[in-house]
Amino acid sequence: MLSVSERTLKLSCLVLLTFITTSTVLLMRYSRTEKVPQHYLPSTAVFLAEVIKVITCVCVLYIEEGYDVEEASATLYHGITDWNETFKLIIPSAMYTLQNNLLFIALSNLDAPTYQVTYQLKILTTAIFSVMLLGRKLKTHQWVSLVLLMIGVALVQIPNDSSKSETHESAKKRGSLFLGLMSVFIASFSSGFAGVYFERLVKFGSHGGGSVPRLSIRNIQMGIFGVLFGAIAMLYSDYYSIRQGGMLQGYNLITWSIIALQAFGGLVIAVTIKYADNILKGFSTSFSIILSSLCSYFLLNDLDLSNNFILGSFLVICATFFYGCKFNYPEKEEVLQQKG
Ligand code: C5P
């Protein structure tokens, strides 16, 4: 049985994540399609979000150490120079950097709800990697929901009749469907692998046992590489633009809001992974799909609510809930402990 505080923490994570995911997706989509003289460079936003995450985690560490600068510095130093542990964060960090950059490409080419429904494929990749890396066993109803999920995602992609007669303007707005979908597919793979890998490191230690460094340290270890990879990606893709127009070209209040939401959202995801699990993330995105579809339809006028889309989204949402249902099976952690 879950204690009241555990339930509250999980519920808070769910509500917060739903809110953050919905607003991030809508703002990202809006920012990439709004008519402005100059758009901001997404790679700089990804980089700055990583910097903010590291600074925030250092502040959290300072609070955890009772506002003692010396204690906090010593803990930080030992945490970072524990190279064996620090280097283990290279892989998820590199994947998240790639993923965070790809999601901007995806949202430049897909409407917000199509992006979100397709990105639900990460539940499938998360499940597969949970089986492979954490030794989890999926129940029959969970495999069934994964199949439902894939059918739902496929349905959303099938164009309805009205798309045959789409105007030049709407085709332009839609962007490159192929590029958008490929970006989401790769991001889903990355999300599944990096999420499960991180879950393993924060819950069970590096080798499925031993002492587990606290979350703020893990986040700082990962953030160091996040800043490094973010800088490399930024310079690789936008070096000349940055030299000409500066790093903050095209920035406005919306851009800064996206950066803040991405940084804060990343930290909430880290807490969710540590204290709940990756499936809770799937739940929050499902709620978020409903919210962003409604907002996209009423506020951005960015979505044609076709029958395929509605049916596909409905299947994806049902599959997500069905996946999370408990039919008196043993808890996952118990299965893991039995295995260990
Ligand atoms: O879509 P998904 O749930 O995989 O998104 C994960 C997001 O959370 C990424 O943007 C990643 O950078 C962020 N994250 C983080 N710190 C962690 C784990 C994830 O900032 N410890």
TrEMBL record:
Gene3D superfamilies: 1.10.3730.20. The keyword Transport applies. It holds the Pfam family Nuc_sug_transp. The chain crosses the membrane at residues 12-28, 40-63, 142-158, 178-198, 219-242, 254-273, 280-300, 306-325. GO terms for molecular function: pyrimidine nucleotide-sugar transmembrane transporter activity. It is a multi-pass membrane protein. GO terms for cellular component: Golgi membrane. It comes from the Eukaryota. It is found in: Membrane. The keyword Membrane applies. InterPro entries: EmrE-like, Nuc_sug_transpt. Keywords: Membrane, Sugar transport, Transmembrane, Transmembrane helix, Transport. PANTHER family: NUCLEOTIDE-SUGAR TRANSMEMBRANE TRANSPORTER. Belongs to the nucleotide-sugar transporter family. SLC35A subfamily. This is UDP-N-acetylglucosamine transporter. It comes from Darwinula stevensoni.
